[in-house]
Each structure stands twice: as C-alpha cells, then as structure tokens.
Amino acid sequence: MLLAFFAFVGGLLCIFVPDFILNAKFPGYTGRAWGSFASASEDLANLYRIDLREAGGMWFSIATLMAGVALTGYRRGERWALFTSLVAGAFACGSPMYVGMATGCWVCLMMGGISLVPLATAILVPARTVLGRR
Predict the structure, then answer these.
(1) Which of 18, 19, 115, 122 has the smallest number of CB atoms closer than 10 Å to its CB?
(2) Residue 35: exposed, middle, or buried by beta-carbon count in 10 A (0-12, 13-18, 19+)?
(3) Tens digit of each residue's pLDDT (9 = 90 or more) over 79-112
C-alpha cells in the first residue's frame, strides 16, 4: 500500500505540477536551469511537460490498480492479490531506474532502487507458488 501511495502522489505531481518537478531534476542532468531552457525553446519545453504528464498518468493508473488490489483481494487473503501487487509495483517504479541510469538523475535511481524489491520478488517467486497449483 505504501508503494501505491508513493506512485499515486508522484503521478499527481507529474500531472498537475510538471514545472515543479522539472525545476528540481532538469539541472541535474543537463547543467542548465529549467527556466532558461523553457524560455529558450518553448516547443521542446512543452514536449518535456507532455512527456512528464504521460508518465504521471501511468503512475496514477498503476497506483489505482495497486490500491484496489490492496483494499479488496489482498485484505481478504486471496492468493492472486500478492502477485498482482508485486507486478504492478515493479511497473510503477521500475521505469524511472532506467531513466536514472541514462541521465544520472539520483531521484530516478532512488525510485528505481525502491522498485527492485517487488520486481525481484515477482521474478524469483513463481506465480504457481503464490497462486497455488491446480
């Protein structure tokens, strides 16, 4: 549920205040301030904003799935809920790790590192173990 909350808040921030996030992370991998870049090339800055909003929409959607699973199936102890939560958690935070490795953004690397736990668990624990044999 904590990972769902993290993805939910991060998704909302990306959707509604992309400039706040870009002000914080843009100088880390370009060496330029976001404000000077946005004023120099408005079209490219709008493309960055659109891309960040799309990523926020993905995070928000996956967080909604994770919260729904946690509040319904996982709480009742259904076997499918754990595996679904692990896979959704890996997708929610796994992609920023690759962005962080490519750009050197430490925030993205940190978010990706958090996702390694559910990702490794989802890969190492076979679905049959979680879902049961039939």
Answers:
(1) 19
(2) middle
(3) 777 777 777 766 666 666 666 665 556 666 666 6
Please, where are the H alpha helices in 1-134? 2-16, 18-30, 34-40, 42-69, 75-76, 79-103, 106-124, 127-131
Q: What is the DSSP letter of 77?
A: T
Q: In whole angstroms, what is the distance from residue 32 CA to residue 54 CA?
A: 23
Query: Cα–Cα distance between 20 and 56 in angstroms, integer?
Result: 13
| Closest to 14 measured CA to CA, from 112, 116, 108 | 108
- Answering whether pTM is above 0.70, one says no
